[in-house]
Amino acid sequence: MKRRDVIKGLTALPLVGGFIGSAFPLDAVAEAPVTPKRDLFKELGVTPTINAGVTMTFLSGSLMMPEVLEAINSTSHDFANMYELQDKVGAKIAEMLKVEAAMVTSGAACAMLLGTAACITGTNADKIKQLPNLPGPRAEVIMQKSHRYLFDQAVSTTGAKIIEVEGPAEMDKAFNSNTVMALFFNAAEKSSVTHEDFLAISKKHNIPTFLDAAADVPPVENLFKFQKLGYDLITFSGGKMMRGPQSAGLLFGRKDLITAARLNHSPHEAPIGRPMKVNKEEMFGMYAALKSYLERDHKKEWEDWLTRAKRIGSQLETISSVKTATHIDPGPANAFPSLDVTWDPNKVKIKPQEVLVALKNGTPSIVANGNDQKLNIGVVLLRPDQVDVVAKRVKEILQQAV
């Protein structure tokens, strides 16, 4: 299920510290939640939502790991010099990812803007101050036509013009004195230029390459795969399956470009990235999230996801004609298990889209995915205590239609 295909229309509020409420860690023991001192969901009239889908920004991404919450809370009581903090956090992240340099950004979209800005301005103070209104011809960023997507607006926000190409030959001819960067959208459904050719052509013209891999873990190996291929800049979202702060992301790669990206970002007071500041708690939290993700038992986690899918499926298949199958998305985005559910419409007289509406409007409110032929239940974002809740609610809706 691709991000662009998910039906939008619901928001949820992630809370931390003393106001965690129902935002329990996914790997917490399945027990009754501790009653919070103050229920801000209720106070503000916000509906707590069970995410039986994928990591979507409009659904507040993911739920933060306990280590992340601890990092946020334990660092919120003191001030810090943000230049020093970005230095130290960036150095540790670069060490963990085995790259020259890294920084924490306010999400992957911010990383795209900062990476583009870095390629345009370098460390030139005048250019940094003038962006996005540089005099002279507009900077150009090369992209495959099939890779154009909503988030490339972050590139054009810098004032750069996106040049669309199809195939290696056309890409090779597109480079000129105005070209500053070549962008590869890793989750694109089609590519007319392979990773290898994309990199080779860009290097031939001595132009930096940027890879947007925002939602492309798991597998954990992807954090290292693309730098080994030779990309100069890479971004991953921090608030998806790494389960860091929703508004945090990673930008890493060449040291000179990361240095330039930082000059275009807060806490510097005038650059284009100033409105996209990252607070100290998010920096500490993103560091803790990456460390936790790299140390996680990914094989065990995968087996747990498969067990969840089987557990839900076994309950739903007690209904006549209902069949379930574990679906593994091929990726590169959202490459993890979910559960496909189908049934005979003559025996269970309800459409998958109607089930989705009933789930969303029910109590508890549950967001899942699907199309005209099947219902798709995500399992990776469920708290342990929510697995049976989702199974029971879907079963109730289907049984009522028998």
Main sheet: strands, sense, barrel = 7 strands, mixed
Name of the CATH superfamily of the largest domain:
Type I PLP-dependent aspartate aminotransferase-like (Major domain)
Biggest sheet strand order reads 2-8-7-6-5-3-4
**Named CATH architecture of the largest domain:** 3-Layer(aba) Sandwich
Brief overview:
This protein has 402 residues and is of the alpha/beta class. The protein has helices spanning 40-44, 66-74, 82-97, 107-121, 125-130, 153-156, 167-174, 195-204, 222-229, 255-263, 280-295, 298-316, 352-361, 387-400, and strands at residues 49-51, 101-105, 140-144, 161-165, 179-185, 209-212, 233-237, 249-253, 323-328, 337-342, 365-367, 369-370, 375-378.
Structure characterization notes:
The chain has 14 helices and 13 strands. It is of the alpha/beta class and about 400 residues long. The chain folds into two domains: about 5-55 and about 300-400, Aspartate Aminotransferase, domain 1 (Alpha-Beta Complex), CATH 3.90.1150; about 70-295, Aspartate Aminotransferase, domain 2 (3-Layer(aba) Sandwich), CATH 3.40.640. A hairpin with a 4-residue loop joins β12 and β13. The protein is globular, with a radius of gyration of 22 Å. The model is unreliable at about 1-30 (pLDDT under 50).
